[in-house]
Amino acid sequence: MRLSRYAAPGAALAVCAALAAPPATAHPALASGVRTLPLAAEARELTPSDTTPFALIGVSWDDPAQAPAGVEVRTRSTATGHWSAWRPLQLDSEDRPDGPRGRGSTAPLWVGPSDGVALRVLGPRPAGLRAELVDPGRSPSHRSTTEQGIVTRAGWGADESLREPELGYTGPVRVVFIHHTDTGNDYACSDAPALIRAIYQYHVKTNGWRDIGYNFLVDRCGTVYEGRAGGIDKPVLGAHTLGFNTDSAGIAALGTYVSAPVPQPQADALARTAAWKLAFAHQPPSGTATLTSASDGSRYKKGTAVSFNAISGHRDAFNTECPGDVLYAALPALRG
């Protein structure tokens, strides 16, 4: 694997359901928002319904511990008017803060510009179940970057009024956990900023987190994006690996890599970004480091000291398939 390095660190109501109003935005020209479509009590299906425009969809419910066995969705393309096949949403219980979680939810799915949705629930139906439809708004005209070539939050159009103003930090980053966003691979690289804005809104407005969970995100073309606010060169406390968010960073590959190949530019950028971040703590990417579990919900009981590879997969710390079999198999090469 080619490795270039950065410089050293110096989710029925009636068929037509009312939608929630979009949140205030710091960028009026880039208006966006999360709309919700609740299912009526005991309903297990939302019949095909017209909606306002959206591009990313997920499903959430009240109690994180009461997840359904599965959720499937169909969406209607704004461009063609055609309905998609049924697509499963991945249950998502591990990308989260070490503290209180908020609502239960699926992983969000990028479907592109859409204006209709249908939904069905498999297995137990949790209370408070609703579809979450995210309109990412328009991208900024200028994509600002750092000297390392990382697209800033302003560059991908983050609405800073959504997140909590306080910034959280941890100790030096000694382990980088690699993730996939599991949002699907049907996106163009030019759509990556919109996809990231949609994930950001989903994490904050649906999941109730303080900010986007990942520290960095990387698209299929190898472009790296700043994630959680606080400074790319600082040890920002993220919400990516339950139990092990302290002294670590989370880097997410935009896409789903259970069976699909990882594009080489994306793999190279994951390796480059991980090595650059680890260098602040003088940690070689081929090394190991010991972290202490902060949650019994992880693979390890709270208080357990665990040795990780400096570049590890999410599944190393939590019982999950993330970052997908294909990307996980590539981790040795990312270490160099």
Helical content (DSSP H or I, runs of 4+): 10-25%
- As a percent range, the share of strand residues is 25-35%
What is the global morphology?
Answer: globular
* Arithmetic mean pLDDT: 88
Helix-strand pattern, N to C?
EEEEEEEEHEHEEEHEEEHH
What is the CA-CA span between the terminal residues?
A: 8 Å
CATH topology (level 3) name of the largest domain: Lysozyme-like
CATH class of the largest domain: Alpha Beta
Gross CATH architecture of the largest domain: 3-Layer(aba) Sandwich
What does this structure look like?
With 336 residues, the chain is α+β, with helices and mostly antiparallel strands. It folds into two domains: 28-135, Jelly Rolls; 153-335, 3-Layer(aba) Sandwich (Lysozyme-like). The protein contains five helices and 15 strands. The strands form three sheets. Strands 1, 2, 3, 4, 5, 6, 7 and 8 form an eight-stranded antiparallel sheet that branches. A hairpin with a 5-residue loop joins strand 10 and strand 11 (224-226). The termini are close together. Residues 1-31 have low confidence and may be disordered.
Strand-helix topology:
Elements: E1 33-38, E2 45-61, E3 70-77, E4 87-89, E5 91-92, E6 104-106, E7 109-122, E8 130-135, H1 153-156, E9 175-180, H2 192-206, E10 216-218, E11 224-226, E12 248-253, H3 264-279, E13 288-292, E14 305-309, E15 311-313, H4 325-329, H5 331-335
Parallel strand pairs: 9-12, 9-15, 10-12
Antiparallel strand pairs: 1-8, 2-6, 2-7, 2-8, 3-4, 3-7, 5-6, 10-11, 13-14
